[in-house]
Structures are given as structure tokens and as C-alpha cells.
């Protein structure tokens, strides 16, 4: 947090399936796994492109969250569907050691492309929808603390969630 690269609007990807793009995606999945993350956006690793990855089978940082399918999402567009808004705890690799409650849309449709340029069109709800919205915010220069409304529910993970391993909360 504080790095100006995280506050910019990322640039669209125009070429799919390139060796450079595949290498970037592999690096992002490795980085996300090393940080026990639920997702990662290219701007978080200093790459100014509209690319997010997300997904896991089980996540130690969010032990009660259901699995989210591993996904590469390029040039995403989010459409809010009916279902209202809900609050939930979020953390971030770009804001290590902290968590806060953020209100997000409960049900969304997201579209975009995979690494080869094939269209993606999915409906997501609950934690899956939260992860997608959080990661896509990074593409527009938004960090989750900018969405925190009640700072009584924002703070150090070690204080708010002492039962969690602090080393597992770097994303």
C-alpha cells in the first residue's frame, strides 16, 4: 500500500497465448500459492495489465470459504445481479497483516477471456463473487481499505484473529 502502481487503472491485454503471458500467469499462480492467497492481480506484482487469477480448493486464510475454481481472467467485466450486498472480512497481499470488513455485491456475472483468448462467462455468488470483485478492484487502482466503511472492523490480523497463523496472512 502506498506504491503508485497500485493506484493506476491497468491496461487491457491485446495479445493472448503468448509465451510472455503464459510465464506471467505461471508466476502469478506461484506467488498466490506461496502467500496462501485466494487471488492475485497483475498490478500487485508490478505489471500494469488487466489480468487477475483466483481460485483454490482449500484456503488456510479463509478456512470456512467454499472452493473457488482456479481461473485466469483477462480484461474482466463485472455485472451486478440481484442478490443484494453483504459484508465480509478481506485481506490482501498489498496490505499485509491487516484485515477489514468490506461490503460487496452478493451475486455477480463476470466475463472476460482466458490465457488463450477464449471467452469466460460465469455467474458467482458468496465468497467466489467477493474474491472476483476484490481482485478486479486492483485493476482500477482500488485497494480494499478504500472500501472499508467502519474502521472499528479494520486492524491487524494478529489482534482480530489470534487463532490464525500470522505467517499465513501475507495475502
From TrEMBL:
EC nos = 3.5.1.88
As for what it does, the entry says: Removes the formyl group from the N-terminal Met of newly synthesized proteins. Requires at least a dipeptide for an efficient rate of reaction. N-terminal L-methionine is a prerequisite for activity but the enzyme has broad specificity at other positions.
SUPFAM superfamilies in the cross-refs: Peptide deformylase
The UniProt catalytic activity note for this protein reads: N-terminal N-formyl-L-methionyl-[peptide] + H2O = N-terminal L-methionyl-[peptide] + formate
Would you identify the family this protein belongs to, as annotated? Answer: Belongs to the polypeptide deformylase family.
The protein's matches in NCBIfam families, at most eight in alphabetical order, are given as: pept_deformyl, PRK00150.1-3
Designated name of the protein = Peptide deformylase
Sorted alphabetically, which Pfam families does this protein's record hold? Pep_deformylase
Which InterPro entries does the UniProt record give? Peptide_deformylase, Peptide_deformylase_sf
Keywords per UniProt: Hydrolase, Iron, Metal-binding, Protein biosynthesis
Task: Identify a single GO molecular function assigned to this protein.
Answer: peptide deformylase activity
Co-factor binding comment: Binds 1 Fe(2+) ion.
Active-site residue numbers: 135
The upper taxonomy is:
Bacteria, Pseudomonadati, Pseudomonadota, Betaproteobacteria, Burkholderiales
The UniProt annotation places Fe cation binding at 92, 134, 138
Q: Which EC class does it fall in?
A: hydrolase
Q: Which cofactor does it need?
A: Fe(2+)
Which Gene3D superfamilies does the record match to this protein?
Answer: Peptide deformylase (3.90.45.10)
Amino acid at each position: 500500500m502506498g506504491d503508485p502502481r497500485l493506484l493506476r487503472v491497468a491496461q487491457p491485454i491485446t495479445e493472448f497465448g503468448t509465451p510472455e503471458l503464459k510465464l506471467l500467469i505461471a508466476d502469478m499462480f506461484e506467488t498466490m500459492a506461496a502467500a496462501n492467497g485466494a487471488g492475485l492481480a497483475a498490478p500487485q506484482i508490478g505489471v500494469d495489465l488487466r489480468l487477475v487469477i483466483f481460485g483454490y480448493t482449500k484456503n488456510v486464510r479463509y478456512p470456512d470459504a467454499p472452493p473457488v475454481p482456479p481461473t485466469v481472467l483477462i480484461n474482466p467485466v463485472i455485472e451486478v445481479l440481484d442478490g443484494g450486498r453483504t459484508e465480509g472480512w478481506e485481506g490482501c497481499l498489498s496490505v499485509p497483516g491487516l484485515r477489514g470488513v468490506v461490503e460487496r455485491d452478493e451475486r455477480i456475472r463476470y466475463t472476460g477471456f482466458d490465457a488463450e483468448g477464449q471467452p469466460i462467462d460465469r455467474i458467482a455468488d458468496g465468497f467466489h463473487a467477493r474474491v472476483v470483485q476484490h481482485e478486479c478492484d486492483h485493476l482500477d487502482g482500488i485497494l480494499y481499505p478504500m472500501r472499508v466503511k467502519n474502521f472499528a472492523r479494520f486492524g491487524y490480523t494478529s489482534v482480530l484473529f489470534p487463532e490464525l497463523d500470522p505467517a499465513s496472512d501475507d495475502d
